[in-house]
DNA sequence: AATCGTAGCAACCGCCGTACA
DNA sequence: TTGTACGGCGGTTGCTACGAT
């Protein structure tokens, strides 16, 4: 593991301006933050640490709350159905971790991102699938693809050897029962998610790996599609894609894909398939 | 028992988009 | 229209536990 500069010497917007605390949060800090947010809300993160009496920057407080202290956070390992959903969504959205997380109640973008980088990408590579493009990593795909995939996922071993460690936080997260109960308002509002996606432009449409090719091939753009069909329809469309058992077929890469010549999916075809 | 390498994940950084004066 | 503050996102870093030697 490379270590560049000590954290204290790295540039930071807020932390550099004052002697603010960095590094792992203590249970005491967690308690102060959780109590303050419960009492005052979390509308102004910038000034929150000062008001709460914390020697942290606002960003750090927000991150801690969003990724760890929020009461609807699940602390249990990601289940098979969640993993499957992550795979589908990543295939559809690329590294839009926040959008993917919005589809998985109780899960954070950071958690999903970490899970992808440490588990799923390796799993896909072990299966001969490029985790960035979801294309096969065949011999024909040559070593450059594989190397790129490996580099992109910072994988070190083909098969993860250890079960995921559990978090050691005092924070009260969602207790996962066997039936994996989920909160009703835990971020599963897909319409809101798509609206958010639309609000942010959704430029590039699917994942970043598609951007260049989409531009070159005049391919599908999520933002355009959303504008064309409206948020509700678009939401339903995307939802149906996620749940559609044939999604895999739509996105399965044919080695002899003729339209793009590189196995890329034809997004336009996907849109047509809705009608 | 000691050392080393790796996995997992919490936390940080820099950038971007939006809201508002 | 412009500048500023802020929230949010994705990528990256670095700490720590743990397995291998």
UniProtKB/TrEMBL annotation:
<dbReference type="InterPro" id="IPR015495">
    <property type="entry name" value="Myb_TF_plants"/>
</dbReference>
<dbReference type="Pfam" id="PF00249">
    <property type="entry name" value="Myb_DNA-binding"/>
</dbReference>
<feature type="domain" description="HTH myb-type">
    <location>
        <begin position="17"/>
        <end position="69"/>
    </location>
</feature>
<dbReference type="GO" id="GO:0000976">
    <property type="term" value="F:transcription cis-regulatory region binding"/>
</dbReference>
<keyword id="KW-0539">Nucleus</keyword>
<keyword id="KW-0804">Transcription</keyword>
<dbReference type="InterPro" id="IPR017930">
    <property type="entry name" value="Myb_dom"/>
</dbReference>
<feature type="domain" description="Myb-like">
    <location>
        <begin position="70"/>
        <end position="120"/>
    </location>
</feature>
<keyword id="KW-0238">DNA-binding</keyword>
<dbReference type="GO" id="GO:0006355">
    <property type="term" value="P:regulation of DNA-templated transcription"/>
</dbReference>
<dbReference type="GO" id="GO:0030154">
    <property type="term" value="P:cell differentiation"/>
</dbReference>
<dbReference type="InterPro" id="IPR009057">
    <property type="entry name" value="Homeodomain-like_sf"/>
</dbReference>
<feature type="domain" description="Myb-like">
    <location>
        <begin position="17"/>
        <end position="69"/>
    </location>
</feature>
<feature type="domain" description="HTH myb-type">
    <location>
        <begin position="70"/>
        <end position="124"/>
    </location>
</feature>
<keyword id="KW-0677">Repeat</keyword>
<protein>
    <submittedName>
        <fullName>Os01g0695900 protein</fullName>
    </submittedName>
</protein>
<dbReference type="InterPro" id="IPR001005">
    <property type="entry name" value="SANT/Myb"/>
</dbReference>
<feature type="region of interest" description="Disordered">
    <location>
        <begin position="160"/>
        <end position="182"/>
    </location>
</feature>
<dbReference type="GO" id="GO:0005634">
    <property type="term" value="C:nucleus"/>
</dbReference>
<keyword id="KW-0805">Transcription regulation</keyword>
């Amino acid at each position: 593991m490379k270590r560049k500069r000590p954290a204290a010497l790295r540039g930071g917007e807020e932390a550099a301006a004052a002697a603010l605390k960095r590094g792992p949060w203590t249970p005491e800090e967690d308690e102060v933050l959780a109590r303050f947010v419960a009492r005052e809300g979390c509308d102004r993160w910038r000034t929150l640490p000062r008001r709460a009496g914390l020697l942290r920057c606002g960003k750090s407080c927000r991150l801690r709350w969003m990724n760890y202290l929020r009461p609807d956070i699940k602390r249990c390992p990601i289940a098979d159905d969640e993993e499957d959903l992550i795979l589908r969504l990543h295939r559809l959205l690329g590294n839009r971790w926040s959008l993917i997380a919005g589809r998985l109640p109780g899960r954070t973008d950071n958690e999903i991102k970490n899970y992808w980088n440490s588990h799923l990408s390796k799993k896909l590579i072990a299966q001969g699938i490029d985790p960035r493009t979801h294309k096969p990593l065949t011999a024909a795909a040559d070593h450059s693809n594989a190397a790129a995939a490996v580099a992109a996922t910072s994988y070190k071993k083909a098969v993860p050897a250890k079960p995921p460690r559990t978090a050691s936080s005092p924070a009260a997260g969602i207790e996962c029962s066997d039936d994996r109960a989920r909160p009703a308002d835990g971020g599963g509002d897909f319409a809101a998610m798509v609206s958010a996606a639309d609000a942010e432009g959704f430029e590039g449409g699917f994942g970043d790996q598609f951007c260049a090719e989409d531009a070159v091939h005049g391919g599908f753009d999520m933002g355009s599609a959303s504008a064309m069909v409206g948020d509700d329809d678009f939401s339903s469309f995307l939802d149906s894609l996620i749940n559609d058992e044939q999604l895999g077929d739509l996105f399965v890469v044919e080695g002899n894909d003729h339209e793009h010549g590189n196995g890329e999916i034809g997004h336009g075809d996907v849109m047509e398939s809705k009608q």
